[in-house]
Amino acid sequence: MTQQLNAAFPPSLWEATGGDPLKTPPLQASARYDVAIVGAGYTGLSTALHLAEAGVSVCVLDAHAPGWGASGRNGGQVIPGLKYDPDQLRVMFGSAVADPLIAAIGSAADTVFDLIGRHGIDCEAQRGGWIQPTHSSKVMRALESRARQWMAEGAPVRLMDGAEVTRRIGTGAYVGGWKDERAGSLHPLKYCRGLAQAAQRLGVIIHGDTPVASLERREGGWRLHAAQGPHIDADRVVLATNGYTDDLWPHLRQSVIAANSFIVATRPLPPELGASILPGGEVTSDSRRLLLYYRRDAQGRLLMGGRGPFREPCGPADFAHLERSVALLFPQLAGVEFEYRWSGRVAITRDFLPHVHEPAAGLSIALGYNGRGIAMASTMGRCLAQRLTGQAGTLFPFPVSTIQPIPLHGLQRFYIAAGVAWYSVLDRFS
Q1: Per residue, what are the HEC states of 312-334?
Q2: Helix 108-119 with 188-201: angle, nearest 10 deg
Q3: Residues of the chain whose pLDDT is less than 50?
Q4: pLDDT digit string (tens) for 160-178?
């Protein structure tokens, strides 16, 4: 890495270009609020912001700072929907449960761009759409079904043949795909800090560098004990720690796989090279099981992301597979220099659905966005705030479940290694 580092943040393109950190001093004295939130990422901050808009007093506690985790390290792609298509969700849950869920996930990108507009968040937002291409004619049939299902829901989506995909993306590696106009891109750390600033303006108190050591049920509410001594009392608590979940609540950490997602970014591409690569400003993630996701940023860099080792990266060699992918997809970029390399944890659930738990009165937990965190977590925060305030006429769209630890969770690094090997085989023969 070539950039100067802010000591409070892991190195990344976003940390280097995200501006000054917010003032979120550690908790120094005990206090009481209506709602206490653990985790200053998208879920926690969106929940806090929407609660504050409803007149609720809120405190957010984070072991580091807003955006330190996945909310400040992701690829910046704002994509609606989940792994499952609308028809699949109706089979899984029945229409009565699935229809509100489909409506919520289908409008998830709208939540993000609405927040950006209403609160004047300067985060390089662009709504150029999402292209999901495929290298396989067999998989193309599944994408055709996916696009038609979303068309039936009224979504602005369309199919693309191989020639259009080549023209739109800038590579001949794919046979076709589909485009979802609802999607877009942004600077993820600036967006996260923008949510935090908007929440602070509405009276939300945010304490960084404040790990929560324990959570205690008390008469009339909860007490959150900070590691440095003071405590917060609250009527309600929201845990929103996602890929960086610890052991604050029993078995929660064991209910997700905290997989590492790796990203590389080139230097800003010269106009003669960059003009042919995603000229419309779309974001892209392909149909592979071990998908690649990529986009251009506001300065013209190409970002390429994908899975990597479970452990934290040790050096540039851990990112070589992504740099090879850039060379294979875009041979015109042969010899391009990579300026940034970084990683972050994605919370993967066994069923590839976001999980909402309410294991005790006054305690809400939300996590597990499976790589769709910007849109899904922002939407989850809005819906949680509505649920906590009992807003009339609103239906909570996400199923509430019990916490289910993944068997042999301590072997998650081996789960991931085995999954990567198996998916690599399946991708080769799709």
Answers
A1: CCCCHHHHHHHHHHHHHHCHHHC
A2: 60
A3: 1-7, 420-430
A4: 999 999 999 999 999 999 9
